[in-house]
Amino acid sequence: MSKPQLILLGAPGSGKGTQAKRLVSEFGFGHISTGDLLRAEIAKASELGKKVKSIMDAGELVNDQVVLELLNANCDLTNNVYIFDGFPRNGEQAALLEDFVLKGTPAKAIYFKVDFEQIIERITNRRLAPKSGEIYNLLTRKPKVDGKCDVSGEDLIHRDDDKEEVVRNRLEVFKKTIEPVLEYYKSKTQLVELDASRPADVVFEDLKKLID
Ligand code: AP5
Predict the structure, then answer these.
(1) What confidence score (pLDDT) does residue 1 get?
(2) Which of 48, 84, 93, 99 is deepest in the core (most CB within 10 A)?
(3) How far apart are CA 208 and CA 61, in angstroms?
């Protein structure tokens, strides 16, 4: 695949995971979500998982180096084109991604813009299937059977950090940290902004045009 590496930027709940899943199934990208990698560590109760759980439950950011190491251990750019979802989240991580992972590989950063009140409605109604990775929404993408995944039949969960007060803190953290990231990619002329407040199908059509 001769596509650039994709870096999805955007507030919690702006739809990065939803669109990443669709891009993976249509184009065969690899998908690296640092949030998913960290949640997998928590699920297996590793030392790292135990360390990061309370930080994530509070909606704060995990240490940059810790996340970089996890990311690096899970991607290999030799034969793959990835979607980076949830990394970088601050200016330091943007530089780390370039210096230690991408190392000059062509990349495009796409910024998902959505109004914060819409985000709170989206996240508080989000339900997830941890095994299949399917993402549902009680308003816009309901499962066929209440509380069950359409694909795997497993029980759907509500993430611990999806409670409204934690979501509000995650949005505050995002507001404080995203500007240097946007500036970083603007200065490299790699940044594209996307109106992600529209229905998921419409956003996906725009994304397809952007990556072609
Ligand atoms: P992470 O897992 O990365 O969460 P996030 O960035 O907060 O993003 P979300 O997964 O909440 O949202 P999304 O944009 O993927 O939205 P989704 O598609 O699900 O991070 C969690 C935590 O891990 C962090 O707080 C931090 O502690 C830690 N962490 C992770 N990476 C880190 C890093 N690099 N450094 C330090 N710490 C790190 O959509 C949301 C909902 O909306 C769904 O219900 C969906 O169905 C619905 N929806 C999606 N699109 C639309 C649409 N267009 N219209 C209507 N509804 C839609």
Answers:
(1) 61
(2) 84
(3) 30
Among candidate residues 39, 122, 127, 170, the one labeled active-site is: 170
Mark whether 126 is an active-site residue.
yes
The answer to whether residue 89 is catalytic is: yes
Token pair of 160 as six digits: 């611990």
Please tell me the distance between residue 36's alpha carbon and the centre of ligand 1 in angstroms.
10
Q: Could you tell me how many residues make up the chain?
A: 212
pLDDT at 58: 97
Separation of alpha carbons 155 and 130, rounded Å:
9
pLDDT band at 3 (very low <50, low <70, confident <90, very high): confident
pLDDT at 101 over 80: yes
State how far the Cα of 161 lies from the Cα of 124, in Å rounded to an integer: 10
Q: Is the C-beta atom of 140 inside 6 A of ligand 1?
A: yes
Handedness of CA 189, 191, 184, 80 (dihedral sign): negative
User: And the tokens for 149?
Assistant: 């995944």
List the beta bridge partners of residue 84.
7, 32
Rounded CA separation 32/9 (Å):
13
Query: Tokens at residue 74, please?
Result: 């899970």
DSSP state of 146: T
